[in-house]
Amino acid sequence: MKIAFKLGYFGDNFHGSQQQSNRRTVEGEFITACIDLGLIRDRKSSGFSISGRTDRGVHARCQICSFFTDHPERAVFAINEKLPGDIWCFAYAEVDDSYNPRYDVFSRKYRYYFYEEGLDHESMQKASQYIKGVHDFTSFAKIKGKDPERKILESEVFTDGEYTVFEIEGHSFLWNMVRCLAYALNLCGKGLLSPEEIRSALENPGMPRYPAMPPEGLLLWDLKTEAEFKPMIPGEKSLEFKKEEERKLAQGRKILEVIN
């Protein structure tokens, strides 16, 4: 049968999500865990598929993968104990043989978190509204021969405590598209770019491409699909990993506070 998992990961120590030889990746770790548990023989024969790629250093709150296995119960109860702490599964679904998360996910939502004081949120929000709809994103992505046109369902900027958040939802995205848009919005927030200049770049896609913001602020937030997922018990490894990351962050803040 085919089973699908919703998974999250902390992207700092991965060379992206896509499997690569001699590189630590999300797919590589997940497939290795499945092979070690006897769930699959290899990627190809299992029909392993994932809903989309994330770049090196990008995090995911919700990603979806699926594969065929003769041991679905073992997969659900054992996968979190076999995965490394910086990947965790939090839901599963028994899906049709034809299910493919790359094509059966009908919208993807990302968030980019800015940690800067003094950003003009009103200007950033105004600019984010121009992003909604169907546009040619040549000025905001690495095209690599692909169709530069994408449909954006939602786009907004809001605050979450000390953070400014850019949230965007669409059917699909181009390489570096969200981070390039975040870069332009960041310039708006600093008063170095007007919202109308972002609109102009969307209406006149021959303009130079904006650079991308660093990957560590980007989070694949949510995916929409018709598959019905059931919650899973989190593994001890991921809980310990998160505690250790919190400890290191707190320690680092204190060092920055007292260092000369």
H/I helix tally: 8
CATH topology of the largest domain: Alpha-Beta Plaits
- From the 3D coordinates, which CATH architecture of the largest domain would you assign? 2-Layer Sandwich
E-strand count: 10
Tell me the β content.
25-35%
- Terminal residue distance: 60 Å
The topology string of helices and strands comes to: EHHEEHEHEHEEEHHEEH
Q: How many whole angstroms does the radius of gyration measure?
A: 20 Å
Give unreliable regions as ranges. none
Report mean pLDDT, rounded to a whole number: 95
Main β sheet profile: 10 strands, mixed
How many domain regions? 2
Could you say which structural class the secondary elements and strand pairing correspond to?
alpha+beta
Q: Judging from the principal axes of the Cα atoms, what is the shape?
A: globular
Please give the share of residues in helix: 25-40%
Binding site for substrate: 110
GO molecular function, one term: RNA binding
InterPro entries: PsdUridine_synth_cat_dom_sf, PsdUridine_synth_TruA, PsdUridine_synth_TruA_a/b_dom, PsdUridine_synth_TruA_C, TruA/RsuA/RluB/E/F_N
Active site: 55 (nucleophile)
